Amino acid sequence: MNNGNTYEYLNRYLDQLRSRGRYTFTGEEVISEFSLSDDAYQKVIQRLSNKKRISRLRQNFYLIIPPEYASRQTLPLGYFVHDLMRFLERDYYAGLLTAAMYHGAAHQQPQTQFVVSEPPYLRPIKNRQQSIIFCLKKEWSTEFVTQQKTDAGYINISNPALTALDLIFYSDRIGGINRAATVLAELSLELELNMLANTAATFPQTTTLQRLGYLLDQVLQESTLADALYSVLEDRNYYPAALNPKADSENQKTPNRWKIIPNMKVEVDEL
């Protein structure tokens, strides 16, 4: 099969995948489907890339770019993340600012997407078209992760309570406590008391519960939500912790029930 014919066959093959609601493929499946040599494979992939028909996301994992996304040369996360994580053989969920966006609480469209994944470490995906950060977590309960339908299948997303906890736990990944508090101001509208208490009860990092409770209580004035979280915290041993773990704390006093040392002034952007 010459390169021209290979290109046309592969072009039609990609159209068939898209007609079935799929926007990704791997190099291995194309080589197998068309019995290509490595040289023939590299040439046809390069031609498809030059014509902006496909975009390589990682290793031999590619996105099929429809005409409406040709100028961006990438796709929304929901089009491909399920396939990507299956390719990488990792359980996952979309979390932090990405999950907050799905829950209507991103404040601003996040430039970086956040995916929580089981170990080992995954390098971030950063190029002109796409920015994805992988946050590692050993385990989580699927009870607090929902599947939302997308144009290309499904995406796993943390529920609002798990999203809130992760925003605090991984606050250094999103720009700090102020950014987390700003998103929480909107996300709190989606939090339900039982959901928050049940999710927090399984969250292993007690200092995260303390910091989230402090922000809900002392900064956002969400006393009912804070009380639900405090009922979980009361069943644990907990000790003084700085609100901002990255900053020094000259004053070690904790003038609140959360035993949080307020070593920074929290500023919430206007919504």
Please explain how this structure is put together:
It is a single chain. The protein has helices spanning 3-19, 27-34, 38-50, 81-87, 96-102, 160-169, 171-174, 177-187, 193-201, 206-219, 223-233; strands at residues 24-26, 54-58, 61-64, 92-94, 113-117, 125-126, 131-136, 145-150, 153-158, 241-242, 260-261. With 271 residues, it is α+β, with helices and mostly antiparallel strands. It has two domains: 3-69, Winged helix-like DNA-binding domain superfamily/Winged helix DNA-binding domain (Arc Repressor Mutant, subunit A, Orthogonal Bundle), CATH 1.10.10; 77-261, Beta Polymerase, domain 2. The strands form four sheets. The chain has a four-stranded mixed β-sheet with strand order 4-5-7-6. The chain has a three-stranded antiparallel β-sheet with strand order 1-3-2. It has a two-stranded antiparallel sheet with strand order 8-9. A hairpin with a 2-residue loop joins β8 and β9 (153-158). α5 runs antiparallel to α6 (160-169), α9 (193-201) runs parallel beside α11 (223-233) and α10 packs antiparallel against α11 (223-233). The longest helix has 17 residues, at 3-19.
Any descriptors?
271 residues; alpha+beta; Arc Repressor Mutant, subunit A; Beta Polymerase, domain 2; 2 domains; 4-stranded mixed β-sheet; 3-stranded antiparallel β-sheet; 11 helices; 41% helix; elongated
